[in-house]
Amino acid sequence: MKQDPITQAVRIQTPRTNEMEHSTPLFLTSSFCFESAEEMRAAFAGENTNNIYSRYSNPTVQEFIDKMCVLEETETGFATASGMSAIFGCFMTFLGSGDHLLSCKSIFGSTHTIITKYLKKWNIDHSYAEIDRPETWEALIRPNTRLIYVETPTNPGLDIVDMEWLGKLAKKHGIILLVDNCFATPILQKPARYGADLVLHSATKWLDGQGRVLGGVVVGKKELIEEIYLFCRNTGPALSPFNAWLLSKSLETLDVRIQRHCDNAEALVKALDNHPKLNWIKYPFHPSHPMYAIAKKQMLRGGGLVTFDLKGGIEAGKKFMDALQMLTLTSNLGDTRSIASHPASTTHSKLSREEQESVGITPGLIRISVGLEHRDDIINDITRALESC
Ligand SMILES: Cc1ncc(COP(=O)(O)O)c(C=O)c1O
Q1: Which ligand 1 atom sits nearest the alpha carbon of residue 85?
Q2: pTM score > 0.90 for this model?
Q3: Domains along the chain?
């Protein structure tokens, strides 16, 4: 009987060894052995599915990939050492000299750096599309556009792309659609249902969910993943089996954790709605979100990230951060522990005001990654810190 993906995320496991372990084993090994020269020859010729070397494949890493494929409703995948190596691996696999990439403008900072600083070195051009002006996207597509890349919701702007519309646009032009599903996770949103050919994650965030390891994964259509696999197997961004073991264990609790993150985020949004110290609060499932209807259409719930804009701008932002007693000041997100960040004075401080504005970053913008502490403690810490602004 076919099991629900949430059950499979708990139950998928590498075949039980002779030790009869209950919890999943960890294959912490760089390479694998062969019984004979013939078996080894056949493995290298691709005539059997034996593991050869952990840069190519590893059973613990495969277990993590198999769970992600079930959750994302995709055929196959490849896991990488970080989210950035998944993104870079996809770009390098599908883009070559003379090609063009179309990306939404509001994307994670290091992805922006790859696109604007490094792709240029290989004569790969790009266009940035405004996330809130879908009517302008089609005109940016060129005959040499090979890849469309989006984050939804975006980091840190929490903007949303209509994936049904985008999936149709990519299909019409025969372009590969790659979606960074890091913020929503497959619990809340499944981009492949809307025509995404490839879906990737920084597993460092919600998938681990406990701030322990770096990891990345890309899942999608078999023929595309095969090309990514060949690029990565030779260039070496493989996920460590130890990290894969932690990530696979984490997926057993992903649904429970994400539901509670959403419960706490919703309670925080309710507590901060119309707060006198704030210009606005942004959350995909808040009716004031500009893409509320689209979020409701493609996401199950609003997620664990909330942003708000402090009335006092950059100085208020710094004061707010200093006044927090429980929330952590750190640049990660998607942890059991609630985290606050102030992009204008940290991650995005090198951008000009105009550049910040164009990706939705105001001087007083605070991003909260809502954790799993009791919601009253999260709300109390934030509202107390707001008093000091
Ligand atoms: C949306 C998004 N994509 C990709 C990344 C990069 O992931 P990693 O830090 O695992 O390389 C991040 C990291 O914050 C992110 O937020």
Answers
A1: 11
A2: yes
A3: 5-251 (3.40.640.10), 254-387 (3.90.1150.10)
